[in-house]
Amino acid sequence: MNGRRKRTPVVYERLTHPLVRGSDGELRRASWEEALERAAAGFRSARDDHGPDAFAMLSCARATNEMNYVAQKFTRVVMGTNNVDSCNRTCHAPSVAGLTAAFGSGGGTSSYEEVEVTDLIVMWGSNARFAHPIFFQHVLKGIRAGARMYAVDPRRTSTAEWAEGWLGPNVGTDIPLAHAIAREIIHAGLANRAFIERATSGFDEYAELVEPWTLRAASKVTGVPAPAIRELAHAYASAERAQLCWTLGITEHHNGTDNVRALINLALLTGHVGRWGSGVQPLRGQNNVQGGGDMGAIPNRLPGFHDLLDPAARRRFETAWDTVLPPRYGMTLTEMFEAMEHGSLKSVYCIGENPAQSEADSEQALRRLRALDHLVVQDIFLTKTAQLADVVLPATAAWAETDGTSTNSERRVQRVRAALTPPGEAREDIDIICALARLLGHDWKFGGAEAVWNELRSLSPDHFGMTYDRLEEHQGLQWPCPSTDELPLSYLHGRLWEADETARGPRAPFGLVRHDPPVDLTDDVYPLRLTTGRRLDSYNTGVQSGSYASPLRRGEFIELSPEDAEAYGVRVGEQVRISSRRGSVTAPVWVDPALRPGLAFMTMHFPDEVDTNQLTIEANCPIAGTAEFKASAVRIEKLAVVS
Known about the structure:
It is built from 23 helices and 27 strands. By secondary structure, it is α/β, with parallel strands linked by helices. The strands form seven sheets. Strands 2-1-15-14-13-3-4 form a seven-stranded mixed sheet. Helix 3 (about 95-105) packs across helix 13. The chain is globular.
């Protein structure tokens, strides 16, 4: 049996006209005038009756920079709150927090081209061949040019098949592994002392912190053989140039920011940052996760990375926008859902996100969304979240029906151009937001996406040099790009190598982070460790990809090691019940020899068939608010045979 099964995938309907919830509780077709009036009235009621912080905006990591800029401006200027966030919180908020703490900005430090010319590539918690296939082509070019690659992942993934060495740590033991690598580098005399003394702070405390993590101690905790740890330590420290890349295997933990800091520490220890070919690179999972944060669609930063608590930064935007900004951070996505539970968050404007199926502990997420007084969803499909809404607004597809820009993982801003006419009555996101702003007393007039972009450029020095003409001429530009005459460097933080202390600027601090095991512990009742991830053939919750055929797609399975499948007496294709401390689902079995005993794997791609997020835990990183999708404790049970 090949494990494939007949599937009837859920096909999500493309939205072509507005919908409002009628007196019978069902969504019905409405005119744009009625839908916008209903949406605006709900926002106004929440703000006027309960205060500005009773409103929140979920912006979209797949939409353009220009949309995200206008969405956060609507939140701050029209609604008077900083409660704006996006699915960045679900995936890479720890990367932004960790990079900002170390270097002052939240972007990856290198370009894709540098991966092609570097000497060593470390893919940590990243199955890039499946999750970031375009980036992986750059990795393959680097390997073919002579780069050595190491893969660090609990599973021996498709990416690891290309690696010179694979280290398979137990889920949630990345910090002990990183600390053991650091200790080995220090004891072997391979630390870059000149760089450490010139450009970093806190080294002595860091060296003391990692000292207990001998190769033997780390091997016992992580499950990685001591010789493999030593080999990676020496290879990374000895390389002339090295790229350290990570994705959600590092960030989607209750201590995701600490995990990121542990990896950045290795770059600081060896001087593998701030130079051509050497850097640290979080790989973003959606086309504009980086850009959404850059545009200020996050609760603690204004467009262009300005800290909301900086009075000078606030004055700059208050003058430009003719408003007064609340001098406090807004709620993160995680805090928004908690506020729904408490009843203090009354109204949500959700653009292009599907939290009903993407949040950890999905049953809890649904309950919280239903508790809202007013939910407006603006999207291209009638998602599960949209099906809960009071008002549904049909938007254009950002990648094919909209003009604007987006920003990828290497900080490259690129043009997006409308190639198709949107169906039915679907309207541009920015037009919809501006129409709502007018109904709420703000008559905004943007003469297209370029006008929005130019307003952003006037407020963000790092984007000032990126005119639409220059973006087209150079096929994209990387920030920071403050000049319209010069091209930016491809890598960040070269200042750390300056001889002059003033030119070097602030030192990069080592992060003093400690091992903290997963919250959801395995035991005799829940003996398996479930980790989650992506497959090459599908995209996120499957709304956009699930209805399209793929020869690679087999639907959702619970993947087990051969040893566990034998121990449980199950075979490929057999339906089993998977249970965690939060819920249960049923799914067929798949046997994967790349898994070790005790480790199981599932994806979030088919929640209408198998809702994996009923199993995951909402244990959140206290710094970034990201949930621990990667470490749930589960059990499996054979189902009774129906005669």
